[in-house]
């Protein structure tokens, strides 16, 4: 077996990759093309990395599992899945952050949210994986914390999911504790790998290849500068509804629909790659999106919940209707107010007022929209279980569509 495909995968994603049974770690990576590189006109001022890691202290890690090809054999593969981890305070695991959460449509899971809502704190990292791996990842987080010396009688980690069963042998349970450990151990600051990495490896977004995306905004509130960052795992949406910068990109690129390279028994001809697509509008496929919002603005738990509710407005700009089959679940945390849970006695806190939150609301909408576009732009065409293929959003045709509607930002590289 050659190492070339593994090295190439790592160079593309910058993640820890499990391929053909081997585990390799890589912290550096070449940053993939992003929305602004293609001339997508986006509002707001991003941070230097335009990523959730622009918020000081926040770290992101991935474990990516790509193995096998051809027909699906349960328990063997092909495997196209992984785990993504977000650490609010990096190596500081003993200082919880204020947090809030919201579900726009609840056909999904995010563990630990009952206590998060009750207490107002996020106590540890946030992990994202596939639907059938939530349990093993949740248990692995507890073991990881114990192994790092955390002292507690009980823990309720936050682990979220989206479904990757079209490309991945999801019922084969290929995500193991070591993959969660790898995502957590590899978490670092700097640019965030996007597209086909971590929990986003096998995800589909607006019927193009989806996955992980990130963005950030710099804002000024009452004379003070703050950063708000967003990370998404996008796996939702219909092609016909896709909008990018207000342009009906889904209508402009109506071909390149997911398909089977090799005919699968019982599938209509229209589902075979290279044959005519079905006529009429496509139905909204079942899918989900997880959004993690981080900020260093001093916000209280109820204010962070208010931020998560604005995430849906960013999704709406992309063409989401939060369909019945979608799990649209969002979490936000603030790294301000360190030591807020430490007693005894009252703790002095700082917070902006509700009247000062509009700038952060706008930043949330903008960064959510751009993070989703970045996920679509970074993702690469993938063929997975049963030779099912999901195409990447073609960059040249996106630029053509933007130009047709007068929305291509001048001066962007071609």
Your description of this structure?
Helices cover 22% and strands 23% of the residues. With 414 residues, the chain is of the alpha+beta class. A six-stranded mixed sheet has the order 2-1-3-4-7-8, sandwiched between helices. It is built from eight helices and 17 strands. The chain is globular and about 70 Å long. A hairpin with a 2-residue loop joins β1 and β2. The chain has one domain: L-amino peptidase D-ALA esterase/amidase (4-Layer Sandwich), CATH 3.60.70. The N terminus is likely disordered.
Task: Offer a few descriptive terms.
6-stranded mixed β-sheet; disordered N terminus; L-amino peptidase D-ALA esterase/amidase; 414 residues; 17 strands; alpha+beta; 22% helix; 8 helices
């Amino acid at each position: 077996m050659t190492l070339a495909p593994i090295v190439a995968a790592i160079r593309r994603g910058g993640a820890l990759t499990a391929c053909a049974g081997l585990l390799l770690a890589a912290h550096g990576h070449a940053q993939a093309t992003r929305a602004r590189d293609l001339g997508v006109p986006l509002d707001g001022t991003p941070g230097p990395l335009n990523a959730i890691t622009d918020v000081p202290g926040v770290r992101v890690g991935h474990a990516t599992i790509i193995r096998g090809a051809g027909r699906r054999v349960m328990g063997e593969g092909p495997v196209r899945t992984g785990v993504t981890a977000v650490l609010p305070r990096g190596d500081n695991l003993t200082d919880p952050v204020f947090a809030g959460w919201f579900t726009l449509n609840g056909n999904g899971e995010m563990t630990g949210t009952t206590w998060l809502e009750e207490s107002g704190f996020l106590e540890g990292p946030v992990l994202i994986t596939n639907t059938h791996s939530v349990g093993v990842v949740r248990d692995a987080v507890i073991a990881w914390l114990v192994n790092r010396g955390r002292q507690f009688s009980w823990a309720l980690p936050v682990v979220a999911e989206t479904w990757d069963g079209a490309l991945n042998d999801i019922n084969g349970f290929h995500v193991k504790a070591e993959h969660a450990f790898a995502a957590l151990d590899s978490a670092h600051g700097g640019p965030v790998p996007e597209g086909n990495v971590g929990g986003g490896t096998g995800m589909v977004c607006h019927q193009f290849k989806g996955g992980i995306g990130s963005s950030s905004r710099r804002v000024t509130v009452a004379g003070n500068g703050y950063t708000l960052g967003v990370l998404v795992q996008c796996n939702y949406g219909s092609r016909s509804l896709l909008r990018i910068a207000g342009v009906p990109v889904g209508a402009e690129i109506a071909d390149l629909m997911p398909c089977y390279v090799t005919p699968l028994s019982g599938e209509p001809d229209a589902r075979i790659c290279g044959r005519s697509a079905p006529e009429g509008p496509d139905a909204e496929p079942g899918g989900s999106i997880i959004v993690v919002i981080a900020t260093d603005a001093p916000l209280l738990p109820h204010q962070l919940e208010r931020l998560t509710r604005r995430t849906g407005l960013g999704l709406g700009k992309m063409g989401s209707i939060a369909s019945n089959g979608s799990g649209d679940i969002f979490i936000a945390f603030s790294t301000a107010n360190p030591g807020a849970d430490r007693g005894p006695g009252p703790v002095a806190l700082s917070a902006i007022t509700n009247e000062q939150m509009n700038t952060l609301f706008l930043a949330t909408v903008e960064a959510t929209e751009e993070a989703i576009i970045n996920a679509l732009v970074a993702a690469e065409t993938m063929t997975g279980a049963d030779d099912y293929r999901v195409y990447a959003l073609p960059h040249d045709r996106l630029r053509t569509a933007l130009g047709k509607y007068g929305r291509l930002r001048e001066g962007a590289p071609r």
